Amino acid sequence: MSTDATTLLTRTVGTGDDVITYDIRGDLATATTERPPLFLFGAPMGASGFAALAGFFTDRPVITYDPRGADRNPLGTTDITVQQHVDDLHRVISALETGPVDAFGNSGGGVTLLALATAHPEDLRRVVAHEPATGAVLPDADRIGAVIDDMKRTYAEQGEGAAMAKFVQLVMLQGELPADYLDQPAPDPAMFGMPAVDDGVRTNPLLRNMPSVTSYAPDIDALRALGDRLAIGFGVESGDAMAARAARAIAAAVGIHPVEFPSHHGGFSDQPGMPGDPAGVAARLREVIG
C-alpha cells in the first residue's frame, strides 16, 4: 500500500447482508503503539462525511467506514441494533491487524463507540465519543422515548419525509422536552425540504437505528474503568440539544469533565447550509488523543 496518506484503499469484511465497507488512508505498516490508526465514524453517517476531518491526519493511517445499512453496504428494512454496530466495528478493527486503534465516534457512532469500549476495550487505545445521541441518560428520557416511538409509527404509516421532519424538529430543540411535546402539531416536511408524499421505501438507516441507539444506556462502571483513555465531547455551538446534553450527562456520571470541541454536532465537516470547522475539530481531537 502506498505511504501517501491521501491514498484511499477500500476493503470489505463479511458476506451477504453483513458486508461492511471501509476505507484506509495511508499505510497500516506505519502504525505504531504510540500512533495507531485513527478510526473516524458515525451512525448513520458514512465514510464520506469524515473525509474532511481525515485529511488533517496525514501522520498516521486513518480508517473510515459505512455503517450497517448505509451508503455502500447492503440496504434493508429491519431495525439495526447497537450490538450489530459493535460487532461490525470489532470485525473491521480485527481485520486491520494493527492492534488497538484510536477512535472518534460521532452521534450514533458515539453511542456505538461507548458500547464497543464496553464490549471490546482491547480494540481501543483512546476513546473519543462526540455527542453520543442517546436519551437514556437524560431526565426527560421517557419523553424522548415516546417521541422516538411516535417517529417510528410515523415512518411506518406515512414514510420518510414525515418521520424525518419530526426527527429534525427533535434534534433542533434546545433543553428538555416539554410534557406536551407530542400534543403539538406535526411539522410540515416541506419546512425542511422533505417530500410529503410517501414513496413506500423503508430503508432509511437513521430511522432503522432507532430506538436501539437512542435508548442505549451506557455501562458507566465499564466506562469509568477506561480511565484517561476515555473522553466525551460536545460542540460548543450545540447548546442544550439532546446529544450535547447526553455527552455532558454521561461525562458527569463517569466522573470526568466533558471536552469542548469547536463548532456543532457535525462540525467536523462542512454540510450545505451548516458550515463547520473541520480544522478546529481536528486540532482539538489531536490534543485529546495525543
TrEMBL record:
UniProt xrefs under InterPro entries: AB_hydrolase_1 (IPR000073), AB_hydrolase_fold (IPR029058)
Keyword Hydrolase in annotation: yes
SUPFAM superfamilies listed in its UniProt record: alpha/beta-Hydrolases
Every AB hydrolase-1 domain range: 59-164
Any Pfam family: Abhydrolase_1
Molecular function per GO: hydrolase activity
Keywords from the UniProt entry: Hydrolase
Protein name: Alpha/beta hydrolase
Organism the protein comes from: Microbacterium horticulturae
